[in-house]
Amino acid sequence: MVTRLEMDRREVVLDGKGFGDAGAYEKIIGTLRFTADPAHPLHGQITDIDLAPKNADGRVEFSADFYLLKPVDAAKGNGRLLLDVPNRGRKVALDVFNSAPRVPDPVKPEHFGNGFLMRHGYTVAWVGWQPDVPRQDGMMALDVPRAKGVGGTVRVQLRPNDRVDTLPLADRYHVPYATVALEDPRAKLTMRERSGAPLVEVPRSQWCFPDAGHVKLEGGFAPGAIYQVIYRSSDPSLVGLAFLAVRDTAAFLRWGSADDGNPCAGEIERAYLFGVSQSGRFLRHMLFLGLDEDEQGRMVFDAVLPHVAGGRRGEFNLRFGQPSLNVSASVGSLPPFNDEGVFDRIAKRGHTPRVIATNSTPEYWRGDASLIHTDIEGTRDAEPAAFVRTYLFAGTQHTPGTLPPLTVNSGTGDRGYHRFNVVDYSPLLRSALVNLDRWVSDDTEPPPSAFPRIADGTAVEAESLASFYGTIPGARFPVRISRPSRLDFGPEIDEGIAAYPPKTGAPYRPVVSAIDEDGNEVAGIRPPELVAPLATFTGWNTRHPDTGAAGDLMSMNGSTLPFPLTRQDRERTGDPRRSVAERYASRSAYLEEVRRTTRELIAKRHVLAEDLEGIVERAGRRWDWILGLAS
Predict the structure, then answer these.
(1) How far is CA 363 from CA 97, 226, 616, in A?
(2) Within this chain, do residues 244 and 103 fall inside the same structural domain, yes or no?
């Protein structure tokens, strides 16, 4: 439960400029203080909570960074709280819903993008939930107690894009668990030259810990190679308290009184939970544990929207857990995957939130997304639960595409062999949120789930598509496509203690969407870019040769493979796809086709009417960019 909110700042944004009917907004920035009863039946699932220090009341104390945007006049808001779980400490909701640049503290008009969430009257909140996020660049973190005197093993995977001799013992910029001894003879460093290559142990004489938080390799780490460090550490953070921080933040804003210091007292009718990628996996894990229910037995969230989470969870409730970790062979890749298993606990209690799960194509190509709607053997479809809708945003990449596309993945530094995918799925996500709200508010059911199905042949093995993509001039299909495998982390994994390295069993049988004659996906929700195409838009790309391991599949980015411009270009290059000129008589004819297909998507409730003109305007810029590539 929240014991108090310590406000650092409270101010009106944009000098009181209004957002349509919702009017002016204000921001509140501060720190939330929490306590939790370690003896509560739900809390017994939190790894090592029994080892945490207790206050005089026998409760565990922790705190988190807090940020809130709300209408100044609550009567002009929609009474909906959207709690956006930060992705690696960074706010995401304004990025994906408002099509705004990602900034830590929005202060300019452009930081609010198209103003979608504000114009619709949402109260938007963020709370830090990761103990391993450094407090820099406006990132939000969680302060939790540690299990003092407890030792154990940590595993870190590293994959550099450039040759360097020293790397942190953590994913990207995150705070590492310190090694217990710089000269620890039991520590191991292994490497694979590329995905699927043999695992080789690096002799201890060739590497060292230059300090407690870094590893150094003689001659440097090879670009593209996959390294793994297994070492001992002590005093693990109670990372599982993150679930309680997220849950109790929403409960406080929804039900806390003004006397309790709640700035939203009496203003919130519904609470929706949103997370992207890593934080989307966090949402799946939270529902798996049933920790959306608070100490008073109240169901805190009316609806949950996990986006691009695939079928995975994460190291969110593990001794020495690294919430930032993005490794497929981790505890987050353990079953269950589909609704029957993941949501079993909340289904049995008799009341559930409404869930819309949305994914892009890369989650399918990495091998886990299809497991949410097949059986464990990948031989038959498994229908979503009645309170769930599952959608593939066809032909998209992990993040909305930009025009022109980025040349480097901003999160990982990876570069692709092809230009990145430029499809912008933000309109589909905005419509999903509106559909979710209507589902909760007046029982208007969203459109049916849309994903690749084994039964109708729209689900295929990824390798089966190599023959078509190999005929596109200049295209490089992945040489290696890894599949997630069955993993065994030892007998104590149910208690949150993992044994490394895990034993690896047989691979699962994931599927991806089948494709049409243009190489574009046929399953899922097809955005205007695919229905009126100028290119083949894939959810896969391969690593750039300069970053090493050429031919390996990139983890999050897709490709844009433009059509030939004319019939003569098509015949000269042997391209199997019809040219732009054979499809559209002119730029205006193309835009009219985009307008027509978008209206069809509006009728199906996959796109909002308010997005029509923006989609057509962007289509014009896409036409200019693609035709400009040939000039």
Answers:
(1) 20, 20, 28
(2) yes
Encoded tokens for 49: 């909570």
Helices marked H in 7-165 = 93-98, 116-119
Q: What is the mean pLDDT of each run of 10 residues along the chain (631 residues)?
A: 98 97 98 98 97 98 98 98 98 98 97 98 98 96 98 96 95 93 96 94 97 98 96 98 98 97 98 98 98 97 98 98 90 95 94 97 97 96 97 98 91 91 98 98 98 98 97 96 94 97 96 98 98 98 94 94 98 98 98 98 98 98 94 67
What are the C-alpha distances in Å from 229 to residues 177, 192, 210, 216, 555? 12, 12, 14, 11, 21
Look at residue 430 and tell me if it is in a domain. yes
The Cα 68–Cα 333 span in angstroms is: 33
Do the beta carbons of residue 70 and residue 77 sit within 8 Å? Answer: yes
User: What is the signed CA dihedral for 265, 94, 373, 535, rounded to 10 degrees?
Assistant: 160
How confident is the model at residue 411, as a pLDDT? 77
CB atoms closer than 10 angstroms to residue 105: 12
Indicate the Cα dihedral angle 543, 547, 550, 553, nearest 10°.
-30
pTM here is 0.97
Q: Range of 170's domain?
A: 151-234
Examine the domain organization and report whether 423 and 277 are in the same domain: yes
Look up residue 576 and give its DSSP letter.
S
Beta-carbon contacts of residue 107 (< 8 Å; ≥ 6 apart)? 13, 14
**According to the model, what pLDDT value does residue 326 have?**
84
Last residue of a domain, which of 406, 423, 442?
Answer: 442
Calpha distance 547→1 (Å, rounded): 47
Q: Is residue 37 located within the same domain as residue 132?
A: yes
Residues 6+ apart with CB under 8 A from 89: 128, 130, 133, 134, 139, 140, 141
Closest CA to 471 of 424, 403, 417, 517: 517
Count the Cβ atoms, other than its own, within 10 Å of residue 24: 17
Exposed e or buried b for every residue in 268-305, given b needs 16+ CB within 10 A?
bebbbbbbbbbbbbbbbbbbbbbbbbbbeeeebbbbbb
Longest Cα separation, the chain: 81
Residue 567 lies in a domain: no
Token reading at 18: 């209004």
Q: Are residues 251 and 349 in the same domain?
A: yes
Domain boundary among 199, 234, 269: 234
Tokens 């995150």 belong to 174
pLDDT one-digit tens code per residue, 320-330:
999 999 888 89
The per-residue pLDDT for range 444-503, each reduced to its tens digit, is: 999 999 999 999 999 999 999 999 999 999 999 999 898 999 999 999 999 999 999 999
Contact 370, 378 (CB under 8 A): yes
564-578 residue pLDDT tens? 999 999 999 999 999
Give 506's contacts (C-beta < 8 A, 6+ positions apart). Answer: 485, 486
* Residue 250, domain CATH: 3.40.50.1820
Q: How many CA atoms lie within 13 A of 423 on its CB side?
A: 35
Give the count of beta carbons closer than 10 Å to the beta carbon of residue 438. Answer: 14
